[in-house]
Amino acid sequence: MMCRADPAPEPGQTHNPDGADTVVTSLLEDSAEELYEQAPCGYVSTLMDGIIVKVNTTLLDWLGLDRSRVVGRMRFADLLTVGGKIYHETHFAPLLQMKGEISGIALDIKAAGGRMPVLVTSKVKTGKDGEPLLIRTTVFDARDRRAYERELLRGRKAAEEARRQSDADRVRLQEALAVLQQSLLPAELPAVPGLEAGSYYHTASPDLLGGDFYDLFPLAAGRWAFFLGDVCGKGPQAAAVTSLTRYTLRAAALHDPDPVTVLTTLNTVLHERYQSGEGRYCTAIFGVLEPAGSHVGVHLAAGGHPAALIQRAHGSTDCLRTPGGLLIGALPHAPFTTAHTRLRPGDTLLLYTDGLTEARTGPDRELYGEDALRAFITAQPPAGPQALITALKGLLASFDNGLDDDTALLALGVPAMPTAPGDEPRERTGGQHP
């Protein structure tokens, strides 16, 4: 058996539970008529032709009308605004006749203070034989809800406008970044006598400036210089380092084109420029091309950069390794490794940045890697730099969202021609320079 524990009375007060219950009971003793007339919503009953036969005080107060002017004289549609009346006649009333009930319809009534938004629910009362007799309608005040909806709509429009503005700003930013990115690369590669060249730059994100770079330019005595590299980081600071790196490499090469000397100069410039703050480093390959009859001699040096690859005319792929070269700008004095080779007709030298080999592939998102790249190049027919660049562009596209970093490609090759008798054998040597 359950018992009710009454709270203890306050000091000086007498506890009278019977009196409290009496007060509550008296508050709840509402007549049906009072409940109808003073309900928190409007009630109205109409004949099937819409003539109002009963209406409660709540709705009359909203309308600002006397009962005598409404009951038996007006139709429910007369209480609505012009737009609401049209909707009632074309949609509301036909649906009600067809379904016998309709609820939650947003309309506006002609209230005493002007247009008043309401939610209307109507139901048809039928006789025992199913014949429709009366329409009972409930009218709920929707002013707060309409104000909330307007505020919500206003907020949504503001958000959409902000989104459109943000998208427009992003497009403008991407266009500016694309222009700046192009300014860090040659507009087009120069025509080199007896040589073909191709290049490509893949931007992983249009919202970030990359730090990859390459160039090809003439030196004295018919020689040509080339370089390709990757600055650590992204964004405006990386772009500033890229600009400084390209300018330094070009200037150093015109003064002394020896690859080790050029990279040593770049190392000194970067280390001295950024040693007091956040260090700025890069990897790079710098080389010199020396045309000599049917072949082109290649002398290059590298610091911390992936090895260059050579697609040979007979179908194999060689790796022109430069082990031991350190990041450029990390230390005041850094060693750089050199390598020599000859490009004969049909051979193509490929330089690339690590965005290509560090792409993620497969369900386990494994690194693509240098071995896979070498196998891919070997599988391509030796058709020159442009054909190889086209094949690599397709490879990059196949990585889709697995390509997280920018990628720069530079391919240099000797046009294919029938091999002349007595050609010297291909050679490749390397050396270490402090």
What Rg, in angstroms, do the CA atoms define?
A: 42 Å
Tell the overall outline.
Answer: rod-shaped
Helix- and strand-based class?
A: alpha+beta
End-to-end separation: 98 Å
Mean pLDDT: 85
Number of helices: 10
The largest beta-sheet arranges its strands as 7-8-9-10-13-18
Parts with pLDDT < 50 across at least 5 consecutive residues: 1-5, 424-434
How would you name the oligomeric state of the polypeptide chains in this document? single chain
Question: In what range is the share of β-strand residues?
Answer: 25-35%
Largest sheet features: 6 strands, antiparallel
Helix content: 25-40%
Q: What is the succession of H and E elements?
A: HHEEHHHEEEHEEEHHEEEEEEEEHHEE
Count of beta strands: 18
Describe this structure in words.
The chain is an alpha+beta fold and 434 residues long. Helices cover 35% and strands 28% of the residues. It has 10 helices and 18 strands. The strands form 4 sheets. A 6-stranded antiparallel beta sheet has the order 7-8-9-10-13-18. Strands 2-1-5-4-3 form a 5-stranded antiparallel beta sheet, with helices on both faces. A 5-stranded antiparallel beta sheet has the order 6-17-14-11-12, with helices on one face. Strand 1 and strand 2 (52-55) form a beta hairpin. Helix 7 (236-255) runs antiparallel to helix 8 (259-274). The longest helix has 41 residues, at 143-183. The protein is rod-shaped and about 115 Å long. Residues 1-5 and 424-434 have low confidence and may be disordered.
